[in-house]
Specification:
13% strand; 13 helices; 6-phosphogluconate dehydrogenase C-terminal fold; Rossmann fold
Length: 304
């Protein structure tokens, strides 16, 4: 096995660190965690029965693979910091939600040192029970003459549990993440804050709810319980998201004007444009069925 069997996870005590720690341990790897918070580190180590190291240099110097799972804005510096400590042909990868700065940092170290670099973005959170049918975004960076063999072994390992591997580039990745993560997060944060600004209690609004409001409320409540820091970084550190905000601001201004002027023709145009765009999507024809499947689940929950 060219990939090797020793992996160090920097940030192993975090949610994603533990997900991948369990994954690699279940596949026969010797897993070592490194993290700044010693108490959380030792707790995670006991939970998963893996090794730990308090020295960053020692944690990575003999590792065949090094995974970095720390906040987005700290990841590029960490990549550059551990680069000199990696052994020849070691594989280093991150699991951040933004790629432009990370990709540049990985490119720097693979040009300076005989190591292999790849950047991953698992399109799921730490709450999953298994990885089957989830997507893993992959950005190949490069490395030694063993690069393709090492990378292919890693990707085949992920595919073996049903992960869907999608290869992309930094600029494409960050724009699409701004749309698929940043925009839904923004809408749901704003949705709850708009309701709050009316001073109407959410429980009272729920008594008046239809199916659309109920599902939107549940989606928003599930999102708002997750990591605030991560959501902020996905939006604030992504230059592509600022461009999307400008588009949204212009669209909202247009929408307000249509409503103020009671412009039914303008409203119909916007509605039809959204309809035509969505018809291209593979989920379009079954979307109404999905909607009511969600409703059945919610009704069962309320009955119990």
């Amino acid at each position: 096995m060219i990939l090797g069997k020793r992996i160090t996870i920097i940030g192993g005590s975090g949610g994603m660190g533990k997900v991948f720690g369990k994954f690699f341990k279940d596949h026969g790897f010797e897993v070592t965690f490194y993290a700044r918070n010693e108490d959380k580190l030792k707790q995670a180590v006991i939970e998963l029965n893996v090794h730990y190291e308090l020295s960053l240099e020692k944690s990575v110097e003999n590792a065949d693979m090094v995974m970095i799972s720390i906040p987005i804005n700290s990841t590029p510096d960490m990549i550059r910091k551990v680069g000199p400590f990696l052994k020849k042909n070691a594989l280093i990868f991150d699991v951040t939600s933004l790629k432009y700065a990370v990709f540049n940092a990985l490119t720097e170290i693979k040009n300076k040192f005989p190591v292999n670099c790849i950047s991953l973005h698992p399109m799921f959170g730490p709450g999953i029970s298994d990885m089957k049918n989830y997507v893993m975004m992959v950005l190949k960076v490069g490395g030694t003459d063993q690069y393709e063999l090492v990378i292919n072994e890693l990707l085949e390992l992920f595919r073996s549990v049903g992960l869907i591997i999608t290869e992309t580039l930094p600029e494409i990745h960050d724009k699409r993440v701004a749309l698929t993560l940043g925009v839904p997060h923004m809408f749901n944060i704003l949705f709850l804050n708009l309701l709050k600004s009316t001073k109407e209690p959410l429980n009272e609004l729920t008594r008046f709810t239809g199916t659309t409001f109920l599902l939107q409320k549940v989606f928003a409540e599930s999102i708002i319980q997750r990591e605030m820091e991560m959501f902020g970084e996905i939006q604030m550190e992504n230059q592509e998201f600022l461009k999307i905000l400008e588009l949204f601001e212009s669209l909202l201004h247009k929408y307000k004007k249509i409503i103020e002027e009671k412009n039914i023709i303008g409203f119909n145009e916007l509605f039809s444009q959204g309809l035509d765009y969505s018809k291209e999507d593979n989920h379009f024809h079954n979307s109404y069925n999905y909607f009511y499947e969600f409703m059945k689940i919610l009704k069962k929950e309320s009955e119990n």
